[in-house]
Amino acid sequence: MNLIDAAFAKLKQEGKTALIPFLTIGDPDIPTSIAIIQELEQAGADMVELGVPYSDPLADGPVIQRASERALQNRISILDCIETAAQAREAGVKMPFILFTYFNPALQFGLEAFMNLVVEKGISGLIIPDLPIEEDEEVRQLAEAKGVHLIPLVAPTSKDRVVRISRKARGFVYCVSSLGVTGVRAEFHSGIDDFLATVREATELPIAVGFGISSREQVERFEKTSDGVIVGSAIVRKIEETLPLLNDAAQREAGLAQIRSFVAGLKG
Amino acid sequence: MNQVPDENGRFGKFGGRYVPETLMNALLELEEAYKHYSQDESFKQEVHDLLHKYSGRPTPLYYAERLSQHLGGAKIYLKREDLNHTGAHKINNTIGQAVLAKRMGKTKVIAETGAGQHGVASATVAALLGLECKVFMGEEDMKRQQLNVFRMQLLGAEVVPVLSGTRTLKDACNETLRYWVSHVDDTFYILGSATGPHPYPMMVRDFQRIIGDESRKQIVEAEERLPDYVVAAVGGGSNAIGIFYPFIGDESVRLVGVEAAGRGIDTEEHAATMTMGSHGVFQGSMSYLLQDKYGQVQPAHSISAGLDYPGIGPEHAYLKDSGRANYFPITDAEALDALQLLSRTEGIIPALESAHAIAQTIKLAPTLDKDKIVVVNLSGRGDKDVEAIMGYLGGA
Q1: A159 closest CB neighbour out of B25, B178, B297
Q2: Which string of DSSP letters, residue by residue, matches A17-34?
Q3: Per-residue model confidence as pLDDT tens digits over A178-198
Q4: Residues of A in contact with B16 (CB under 8 A)
Q5: Which terminus, N or C, of chain A has the lesser number of Cβ atoms within 10 Å?
Q6: Quick one: closest CA in A to B19, which residue?
Q7: pLDDT at residue B396 tops 70
């Protein structure tokens, strides 16, 4: 059974909502990313998105763009990011891994080789933000054959596409909370609750909400209407603020503790 | 060849719509509106009238006799897109897209710009049609092109500095797309080249094909036959696809694209996407791309800001792989030499972009018999580059 399905099944029994954090792998370096993933799990994360840094992250706002730039200065590749999953597992992390990558790095790797490695290194799901259903046929077939979940995004503007997208979804449906790029924001799309209800109607799968969620209050708001809450930029920003500590061996533990306590605070 | 693009925006394997789901609805709405209005007589008439009465079309096809004699080979004709209002072919497309924006009921337009030519052409039509205009421009480019920044502001546009990535054209494109995602309700994105997600490459080609349609008619009037070669510079590829497109079915006409080799294709500083790049997905479409082995986009370099771009429009990738068009690299130095030669033989100072097409013609024409005909797209005038050229050539 795919670990994502198992995690959601367990949460459902317990009446809980998944907390799904995101981090950019290699910001500031791979060992620190692995240490952060461990902290995230201890803080109550139920699964984690491993972000592959990319030179042209169209769907991302300034916070994740900066994290990508830092990671790329360290020449972090998609291969390093996939390997990170296996290393984190070896370090004792139990939760499912979801790889978040733009399409071109996967394409250049070779889609079949990419999918084989994803499976081999213990990644359960894929989010490819610039691969709408019109373009995802080849990746979806490869993923399906390997039991990897290709998790699609739906947006408040998707309208009658919601049904078509949800039908092809695996793992869960990623609902974009507001129009625009990733990043912390105070307000969500005005029709967000109707939108979530539409998605709920369209699928048997769990639904998770992301884009702009940064506080316990916002997490709580969506716990009622969705099965998972994704927090990206807020965590990446926390990592950015903590960089001076993370990069100093003497203060590294203190930095990691700050990230853990921030994420534990989101979980409530 | 089959009609391209297909319904999914595919030119063979190239093109498509590789964008976040948040943009899909806006692209589908745009495609729908474009399909409708491109068949609408009053829309076509409005675009036609503006091109003729406002921008000064048709532009001349000029026989460059002194240049032809100097090179001692084929007869060279120049398609004078430099004589358009705002000084380049860019306005053909911004007129079309801005009129479409208005028909769609959008009150605001946004655009990306590198050197500022597309930004100026967008600001110009926005002023003309009473639309609010924001132009996204890399901070680096704003420093290099202060005059064009001021020109856009004079025209009433807001120039938004882009601080992400390399702070040049490719990042300005990213930022414009990001802004569009959150303002799709009232905002139309006027994309400046034959790049990006479907329907842009098709739409920009259709608005630029007037260059080729006129050239075809004019050369037949002048020579009673089709040319042997059509030569054009390619960055994103809008002026080239514009002049190529009406000749694609004429197998005797060779199509020659000229890309920027910067400091040389054996260095890391070039924009020779076709010669040195490989297939990849960038800014919404599958095409050729300058990238590393892990799929990260590599920065481009060219003396010409309009060619300084690591991607290229998908229809050019299709023409290259099908063998219908050939693409050649021209260095900064060759382009500068060509610019000076054209200035001195014909009294025409070309834009640095167009100077690349002239440079390839300088190589090509002497190898051809005197009865051969080469049509070159002189896509823009050099006024915008004079200060930079003065820097390169060390004064007078």
Answers
A1: B25
A2: -EEEEEEETTSS-HHHHH
A3: 888 888 777 777 789 999 999
A4: 134-135
A5: N
A6: A130
A7: no
